[in-house]
Amino acid sequence: MQTFNYLRPAHLDELCQALQQPHAKIVAGGTDVLPQMHTGRLQPALLVDISRVSELEGIRIHNTQVEIGALTTFAAIQAHPTLRAAAPALTQAAQWVGAPMTRQRATLGGNLANASPAADAVPPLMIYNAEVTLTSAKGSRSLPLAQFLLGPGQTALQRGEFIQSVRFELPAEDLGSAFLKIGPRRGMTIAIVSAAAAVRLSPEGRLEQVRVAVGASAPTVIRCPQTENLLHGQLPSAELWQSAAQQIAVEISPIDDVRASRAYRRRAAGVLAVRALQAALSQAQEAAQARTV
Ligand SMILES: Cc1cc2nc3c(=O)[nH]c(=O)nc-3n(C[C@H](O)[C@H](O)[C@H](O)COP(=O)(O)OP(=O)(O)OC[C@H]3O[C@@H](n4cnc5c(N)ncnc54)[C@H](O)[C@@H]3O)c2cc1C
């Protein structure tokens, strides 16, 4: 049986103070922390339970800025009507995190701080160019998500810092976006490969604002800028999608592990990212048609 100290701050200033203590470990929904404590892999001297810090909760939309508090659960993200309409890649990702019980507990902040290359919230947030706000007793700073994630289990969080929120620009109506993942089964599964994509159609039907992010295929989730450049300004065609799938396979650096081989991931990532692009394109086409009606 482990013994540890436990603090449950109620406000941001109390949280900042609690995190000044040596060896403080944050717990939010506990879906990663508690299983690790159960197996003994994690033995914190001080557990700081942030679940009552109300300032970290909720989804706020001011004009075109979305701000999602770190404590927001995937169930809340999945159900949010504005996000479902304008940022469907994120709500689709939320929908596939674990099972309903997990989604009621698992938080966005925990998913990002965990820094798993397979974390489902990351590919959508990458294509929406999200930034994370990090806070400590010294103040707050914002970082692009790609700079926050440094490697498997590694982030830019410094001692005493916590994720306060995630912000991004609410995507325009004509930006289609989608998220897909492959696992051993559809639900309750950690991704073998995941992909999010966004695209807009020009009045001439060419691809614009192409964004592709792939998960579980490199030490962190990555954007694929060469694939994005290859697609930009092109008319969609079967040959173009094939070239995109090949380019994605070049841009990622997957590993062999218990869930899949490197070769499988390379092939699957290309196919999955192209499917996500095609789903995003269908949505962009619907938006373009709605504009002309
Ligand atoms: C059955 C099951 C199924 C799962 N399925 C999926 C899945 O399909 N997809 C997926 O991506 N994940 C999945 N997970 C992993 C997990 O649910 C998510 O990563 C979840 O979002 C973690 O959030 P949490 O609030 O539970 O984090 P916690 O367990 O509380 O914390 C996780 C880590 O983040 C740190 N942390 C938490 N909040 C903050 C903060 N605000 N600032 C700084 N650090 C913080 C903690 O110290 C800890 O290191 C699954 C887990 C389980 C148990």
TrEMBL record:
Entries under Gene3D superfamilies matching the protein: 3.30.465.10, CO dehydrogenase flavoprotein, C-terminal domain (3.30.390.50), Uridine Diphospho-n-acetylenolpyruvylglucosamine Reductase, domain 2 (3.30.43.10)
Transmembrane feature ranges: none
One Pfam family, short name: CO_deh_flav_C
Alphabetic keyword roster: FAD, Flavoprotein, Oxidoreductase
Keyword Nucleotide-binding attached: no
Chain ranges of the FAD-binding PCMH-type domain: 1-173
Domain of life of the native organism: Bacteria
Protein name: Aerobic-type carbon monoxide dehydrogenase, middle subunit CoxM/CutM homologs
Keyword flag Manganese: no
Molecular-function GO terms, alphabetical: FAD binding; oxidoreductase activity
Organism of origin: Levilinea saccharolytica
SUPFAM superfamilies referenced in this protein's UniProt entry, alphabetically: CO dehydrogenase flavoprotein C-terminal domain-like (SSF55447), FAD-binding/transporter-associated domain-like (SSF56176)
